[in-house]
Amino acid sequence: MNVLFDTNVVIDLFTDTDDFEAAFTAVDIALLRDFKLWMPACATPSIRYLLTARKLMAATEARKAFGDLLRLFSIADTTSGDCLAAYEHEHRDYEDDLIAYSAYRTGMDFIVTRNGRDFEKSPVPALSPAEFVDLFKPPNIAYGWEALPEE
User: Fold this and answer.
1) CA-based nearest residue to 122, from 134, 130, 111, 132
2) What is the largest CA-CA distance in the chain?
3) 4, HSE (Cβ side, Cα atoms, 13 Å)
4) Cβ–Cβ contacts within 10 Å for residue 11, how many?
5) I want to staple 23 with a disulfide (CB 3.0 to 4.6 A). Which of 12, 39, 121, 151 is the partner?
6) C-alpha distances in Å from residue 110, one per residue of 47, 53, 96, 123, 143
7) Which domains does the chain have, with CATH numbers?
8) Cα 49 from chain centroid?
9) Angle 132-13-26 (CA atoms, 0-180°, nearest 5)?
């Protein structure tokens, strides 16, 4: 299964918030299930920039963290056709539409995002990190912030 993680979920992996737990769990479940992790090429400059702009880490740490992301996630390319499709079908946010049409063309099964509303008309189903976890988490898995499942 191919799962594209939106910019906000990738950035959440570097935060100290409840959003981190949801993003981490979604990525971990995808890895446990042997799904292929993707991030959109059009989002990589924003991801790289936000690591330092939001003061999540120093520039040298951000460069290393971004390199780690590039080894963990495959990159879904963006073509001129994706740009045209996003423009022609623009709903709420051009960048999100661009991600949606790139995800569609590259054969993604799901987009994991915190901006589900911006993906309501996406040709690829969008799930929040929590929805993704609910759908794919094996029943025998628990994380430190969760209660163990009952037998």
Assistant:
1) 111
2) 52
3) 32
4) 21
5) 12
6) 20, 28, 14, 10, 23
7) 2-136 (3.40.50.1010)
8) 16
9) 15
Q: Could you give the CA distance from residue 39 to residue 36 in angstroms, rounded to a whole number?
A: 10
Residue 144 binned pLDDT confidence (cut-offs 50, 70, 90): confident
Q: What is the pLDDT of residue 90?
A: 78
Q: What is the pLDDT of residues 4-56, one digit of tens each?
A: 999 999 999 999 888 999 999 999 999 999 999 999 999 999 999 999 999 98
Please, what's the b/e burial string for 39-66 (b: 16 or more CB within 10 A of its CB; e: otherwise)?
bbbbbbebbbebbbeeebeeeeebeebb
**What one-character-per-residue DSSP string does 86-148 give?**
HHHT--S-HHHHHHHHHHHHTT-SEEE-S-GGGGTT-SS-EE-HHHHHHHH--TT---TTSPP
Model confidence at 147, pLDDT cuts 50, 70, 90, reads low
Cross-strand pairs, 3: 37, 110
Give 88-103 pLDDT, tens digit per residue: 987 888 999 999 999 9
pTM over 0.85: yes
Positive or negative CA dihedral for 105, 71, 96, 118? positive
